[in-house]
Amino acid sequence: MAWTQISLDPIDPALMPERVDQEGCGAIVTFSGAVRSKSRGKDVLYLEYEAYKPLAEAELQRLVEEAEVKFGVRAAVQHRIGRVYPGESSILVAAASPHRAGAFDACRWIMDTIKTSVPIWKREHHKDGADWIEGDSAVPAVVLRPIL
Amino acid sequence: MIKATVLLFAHFADAAGSSKLEMDLNDSATVQVCSEQLIGKHPALADLLKIGRAAVNGEFAANDRILHDGDEVAFLPPVSGG
User: Is B21 near chain A, with CB under 8 Å?
Assistant: First the structure.
């Protein structure tokens, strides 16, 4: 079964290859998504990720297992929630396969699919306020309710 | 009557002023009926709920899904994880 996790824990990229069974594999690709220091022309202080955790966990697990079958890889994903600062990793994807093409393709597909189907949202904090990012839209966060 | 717990996320929760509410619904109410009743209470959600998806008890659900007493109904804006 694929290893997936959604939690407040910081991501240690060094641990990720251990979470994927590499037996018989000649390629392991890891992708790290880091928080940008600028977004839509504004300096980002930090992001806060909110999740509908039971569904997000189930959906992430489902799509990673789908990727394993679709691309013939073994894969793992760690996604942070809560506060994440620029330069820190918010997500790490790892995929292992006999040859590199499957592992590269699986990492890309997993990232693209997470961004459209897993119920996780980010609130971008700037010095003048915050925006909820929802799909391709940024919506000002009028009240800064605690999200965790 | 049945009772359902409604969960709202991201700016849906900001618009309603709450991320969790209890609602009384008629027997055999659907997700659609629940969302209409919610908009009645929180008109700011009117244009929002139609751009999102719904889930019942932790699984994605269609608008015609019939609700039961104690169900948890979540309204989810377009996502932005990663």
Answer: no
